[in-house]
């Protein structure tokens, strides 16, 4: 018997992406299909999304959804079964999904994503003829009110799950918006959406959901602590019997060095020497001096959370040690400026591209020798999984999903041939430099590095195992 799931997400790859949430929302439904789980995904109708998917089938109308008319369009995009919330007054505007062209939050984000959640709750309770999902799976704060709207409804409701992709982003808004959410007064409480005098979207969703998941087992433990809980650790400890950590996978069809059209030359774990063509191409693309030394890369949001200030501070020291560095990303202007200044000082040793380019990120993973991910906290991380897949050895901090997915090249792991990367702690400049030195020594030794690359490339980073865990979770939830 097929289990029907309504996934509610604010971004879905390949239609719109700002981070790992989009990759998960785009790849997990495809992996679940193999386990008899049919997923329809509700997402906002941003201009680029509507342009890409076309007209679609009108399946639902709203006379007034937070200040304007709205409709839901059913479309297929590749293998994805999508429901597009077409609400021009909320989503037809320039800028990103969450920010204006100037980089500021849209002032009505509270209404935009409350609308997404309310539409999700309506669909879950029969707003679309012939569709009655067994489970609603809400992703992050942008969809977290869906379980709240369902919990206060008098109608029968499906079971609900909220997935925390990053607890740092909680969707907290002034109390003045509460009256416009259409929620009963009883939800303005410690067990509802009230959060230190504000409205907490994620906080409300965590209380209302039947199950809460997060994107790695270690992160599920970390968020129960005051250090990792971002102010919600007390709530999470209170629901830890329904908190589950399931590590993310990646779409190994999109990320496949044997078939990737974006890279200079395809290769595999059986033909790793062909990888050198991509390294030469990367040197040329970033204007790096050509030599036989290692290239370390960064492909990331350039933020404090990701620890990229540490890499920027260590840049001169790394160059003095013979390291070449490639940086792709955007974020904190100060960190961006530090990397640009390092490029100015070392134009043939440090290459920098401010901004994100999906095809370029593939070329970097295929051409660099190692990927630096010195995060201060990391719920799961996908960049290290791409690195494993492409033989770009991850150098990571011992936090969250990084600790769950990378095997440190210590003596025992290297001797046993199971090492896949370098893990270090704490997130500091001295520890980072020492980790890079460890990696450089292994690289210069030759065979241990090649063995580690091949072991990394043979690691299963697909959704196969995790999709099975989600499928089991859904079915167990329906049995309760």
From TrEMBL:
Database matches in Pfam families: Glyco_transf_5, Glycos_transf_1
Broad EC category: transferase
Location of the Glycosyl transferase family domain: 289-439
One example GO MF annotation: alpha-1,4-glucan glucosyltransferase (ADP-glucose donor) activity
Catalysis performed (reactions): [(1->4)-alpha-D-glucosyl](n) + ADP-alpha-D-glucose = [(1->4)-alpha-D-glucosyl](n+1) + ADP + H(+)
Any GO CC annotation of this UniProt entry: cytosol
Domain Starch synthase catalytic residue range list: 5-237
Keywords, comma-separated and alphabetical: Glycogen biosynthesis, Glycosyltransferase, Transferase
Entry's EC annotation: 2.4.1.21
GO biological process: glycogen biosynthetic process
Pathway note: Glycan biosynthesis; glycogen biosynthesis
Binding residues for ADP-alpha-D-glucose: 17
SUPFAM superfamilies on file: UDP-Glycosyltransferase/glycogen phosphorylase
UniProt keyword Glycosyltransferase, yes or no: yes
Function: Synthesizes alpha-1,4-glucan chains using ADP-glucose.
Record family assignment: Belongs to the glycosyltransferase 1 family. Bacterial/plant glycogen synthase subfamily.
Protein name (Swiss-Prot/TrEMBL): Glycogen synthase
Species annotation: Aurantimonas marianensis
């Amino acid at each position: 018997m097929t289990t029907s799931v309504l996934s509610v997400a604010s971004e879905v790859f390949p239609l719109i992406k700002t981070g790992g949430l989009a990759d998960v929302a785009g790849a997990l439904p495809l992996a679940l299909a193999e386990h008899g789980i049919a997923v329809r995904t509700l997402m906002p109708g941003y201009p680029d999304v509507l342009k890409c998917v076309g007209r679609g089938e009108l399946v639902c109308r709203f006379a007034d959804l937070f200040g304007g008319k709205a409709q839901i369009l059913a479309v297929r995009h590749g293998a994805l079964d999508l429901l597009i919330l077409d609400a021009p007054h909320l989503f037809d505007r320039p800028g990103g999904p969450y920010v204006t062209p100037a980089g500021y939050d849209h002032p009505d984000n509270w209404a935009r994503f409350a609308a997404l959640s309310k539409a999700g709750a309506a669909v879950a309770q029969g707003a679309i003829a012939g569709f009655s999902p067994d489970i609603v799976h809400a992703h992050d704060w942008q969809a977290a009110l869906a379980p709240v709207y369902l919990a206060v409804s008098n109608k029968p409701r499906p079971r609900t799950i909220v997935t925390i992709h990053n607890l740092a982003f909680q969707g907290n808004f002034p109390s003045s918006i509460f009256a416009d959410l259409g929620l009963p007064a009883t939800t303005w409480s410690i067990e509802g959406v009230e959060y230190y005098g504000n409205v907490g979207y994620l906080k409300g969703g965590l209380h209302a959901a039947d199950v809460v998941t997060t994107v790695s087992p270690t992160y599920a433990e970390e968020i129960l602590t005051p250090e990792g809980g971002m102010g919600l650790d007390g709530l999470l400890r209170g629901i830890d019997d329904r908190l589950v950590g399931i590590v993310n996978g990646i779409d190994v069809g999109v990320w496949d060095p044997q078939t990737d059209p974006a890279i200079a030359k395809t290769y595999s774990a059986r033909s790793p020497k062909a990888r050198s063509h991509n390294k030469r191409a990367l040197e040329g693309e970033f204007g790096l001096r050509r030599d036989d030394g290692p290239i370390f890369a960064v492909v990331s949001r350039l933020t404090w959370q990701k620890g990229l200030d540490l890499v920027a501070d260590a840049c001169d020291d790394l160059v003095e040690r013979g390291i070449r560095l490639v940086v792709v990303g955007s974020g904190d202007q100060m960190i961006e400026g530090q990397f640009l200044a390092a490029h100015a000082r070392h134009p043939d040793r440090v290459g920098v591209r401010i901004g994100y380019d999906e095809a370029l990120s593939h070329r970097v993973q295929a051409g660099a020798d190692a990927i630096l991910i010195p995060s201060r906290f990391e719920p799961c991380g996908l960049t290290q999984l791409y690195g494993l897949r492409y033989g770009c050895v991850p150098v990571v901090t011992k936090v969250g999903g990084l600790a769950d997915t990378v095997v440190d090249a210590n003596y025992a792991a290297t001797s046993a041939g199971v090492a896949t990367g370098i893990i270090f702690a704490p997130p500091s400049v001295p520890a980072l430099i020492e980790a890079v030195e460890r990696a450089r020594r292994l690289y210069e030794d030759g065979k241990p590095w090649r063995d580690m690359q091949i072991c990394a490339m043979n690691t299963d980073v697909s959704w196969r195992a995790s999709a099975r865990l989600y499928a089991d979770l859904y079915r167990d939830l329906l049995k309760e």
